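Could you please consider the sequence and fold following this short note?
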Amino acid sequence: MKGEFLQALPIIETIQENGYEAYFVGGSVRDFLLDRKIGDVDIATSATPDEVQKMFPKTIDVGKKHGTVIVLLNGKSYEVTTFRTEGQYVDYRKPQYVRFIRSLKEDLRRRDFTINAMAMDKTGEIIDYFGGKNDLKNRVIRTVGNPYERFSEDALRMLRALRFVSQLSFQLEEETKNAIIRWNRLLKEISIERITNEMEKLFAGQSSNQAIRLLAETDVYRHLPGISHLQDRLLKITDYPLQQLTEREDYWLFLTYMLKIEDVRMFLQQWKLPRKLIQNVALQRERLSVLLEKGWTNYLLYQAGIDSALQLERVKQVLQKEKNVSAFQTLKDQYINLPIRSRADLAITGKDILDIIEKKPGQWVSKYLQIIEEHVLNRKLENDSGNIKEWLIHCNQKLDENC
């Protein structure tokens, strides 16, 4: 048994010492069997939330009416949830009610996919009522029970299925895929925030190309913001080495470029993304167009800064279907050797320009500074106050890039 489970084992033991059942459940069990990195360790128990809280000195009520209590142990938090069944779902997302039960099997029966419906006891024995181990072996995503029922209960499960295809490099079981094709329209009932969260995880998976192809094949794409009419462009994305993208902004920058989105800000706003991310991606999109047209110039590198430049290089390499690791170090070296790295590094200020050129302050001062920046970066002008002032006088106080 891995360390993550051993650290949580005292919770299992305490619950059992009080006369109740307790098991490790869900994604941690799946990832343990796949020898993947284990994330959150969740526990299911026959004890009610009130009974759980009486057993442990430090707990947090995060959803007692749904059966969940967080138990704090040695600086870590663990979700402990009571075995439960659920009433009829409303809005294709939430059950009308939750009823606490004492049966592990019935608790596991309500879960989404067989690979997530396994439990493990404190000795490491796997309890598998629905064929999850076999589906892991065969690398298959299959719902627990009837897929048409599972997806009509919670429409987000359809996107979760595609996300697991991406993350685990599994295949969709045929009937599960057919159920998605039938019920994809129910995704319109799901909040954009939840859809965005699943899509970002899908983009980040090792088999994202396969999952994106399924988005198109199952018509799920029709219910994604700003993409419903772009199936052909979406399919073209699957021909690119998406695994070279590493950051959240990378995916959105690449996506907006490949889908030929004209109003990047409006498109990203539809996905309810953070304002800062929207601003950054929109700006990077403009720089990406310059990069693809002209290549790396000192001025573009200066404008972007090294972190944004490395992102642009990652996306550029994916778009050009190449992988050149040394290019990143070359870019870092080029940045280090820039004559200036910010306007504050210039040997002249706006005030200096006003002292030389007798005009009222205005936008023209910023334009002068930009031209001076470009000349210094292109090594047409030394970054020295005397030289820059002579240059300004020699230009006869005109705004002339070619002076």
User: Anything to note?
Assistant: The longest helix spans residues 275-294. The radius of gyration is 28 Å. The CA atoms of residues 92 and 154 lie 5 Å apart.
